[in-house]
Design brief:
By secondary structure, the protein is α+β, with helices and mostly antiparallel strands. The chain has 14 helices and five strands.
């Protein structure tokens, strides 16, 4: 007698489920969307075709390590984000992440210390990606003057110190304008490079700011100065940011040096006299 086989109760996988996008493919689409880039734009920058990129983002093509690196570079990802993208594609990270006291980055850290010393009598600091204080020169004390001890206890966060009501906040004459400059800069970074810890810090810092709209006169026309009351008089300072543009170590790439410069002659003179008092030197030209 002939027998029949009952149909299996388990359905065959559908084409959609068989080619479901991988974590890497989903991350690629997310990163590209964040930068508002079309597939054609990204493919052109990465040296591939739109069709190939479409297959990658749909999970129909698995890119090689070199292609992942090119895509990450074309998206402008940080070294940490590039490592994360490589891991999601099944590859080992390409960039080391050294401890800040590691011998491998010792020469770079020493160079930063030299820059800080050379910037005297003006204040300068080296900070991490979320404002963690790494290094500072002796003139940094003009900024921390009168700040609460808990804000100066390690780990110090220079962004929190700058706006906190027990930090520099009460001494910043143009707190609304200066604070908005800081928070808007951080928001732009968080948009390009999502970071939940940075988001939380932005929310905290925003809470320290007054609601008043800053007056146009608080701008120099090309930058927002920091107007800071000190024991020796009001300081007007501009800031510059410097980073290791060619760093291939995650730790170094995430550091930036913030140097303060006098926005007027009176501020320069005041800072030179403070430094002379600290070192015992006569600031007057010989």
């Amino acid at each position: 007698m002939a027998t029949t086989t009952a149909p299996s109760s388990t359905p065959a996988p559908s084409p959609a489920s068989a080619s479901a996008p991988s974590p890497f493919a989903r991350e690629m689409r997310r990163r590209r969307s964040l930068r508002r880039m079309s597939q054609l734009e990204l493919a052109t920058l990465a040296g591939t075709t739109q069709r190939h990129l479409s297959f990658i983002e749909n999970g129909r093509s698995v890119p090689g390590r070199e292609m992942v690196v090119r895509l990450a570079e074309s998206l402008g990802l940080t070294l940490r984000e590039r490592n994360s993208l490589l891991l999601s594609a099944g590859y080992a990270p390409a960039y080391a992440e050294s401890a800040r006291d590691a011998e491998s980055i010792g020469p770079a850290m020493e160079a930063l210390r030299s820059i800080l010393t050379g910037h005297l009598p003006y204040p300068a600091v080296v900070a991490g990606p979320r404002g963690e204080l790494v290094l500072a020169n002796a003139a940094f004390d003009v900024l921390t003057e009168g700040s609460a001890a808990h804000l100066l206890a390690p780990p110090v966060n220079v962004l929190r110190l700058a706006l906190h009501p027990q930090g520099m906040g009460p001494r910043v004459v143009n707190l609304a304008a200066w604070g908005r400059h800081i928070t808007e800069s951080l928001r732009a970074r968080a948009t390009a490079h999502p970071d939940s810890e940075l988001d939380a810090l932005i929310t905290e810092l925003t809470g320290y700011l007054p609601a008043a709209t800053p007056a146009p006169s608080e701008h120099l026309g090309f930058a927002v100065p920091l107007r800071l009351r000190s024991a020796d008089g009001e300081l007007r300072l501009l800031t510059t940011l410097t980073s290791f543009a060619t760093a291939v170590d995650v730790t170094l790439a995430e550091l930036h040096l913030e140097a303060f410069l006098p926005a007027d002659a009176a501020t320069g003179e005041l800072l030179r006299r403070r430094e002379a008092a600290r070192t015992g030197d006569d600031p007057r030209p010989r």
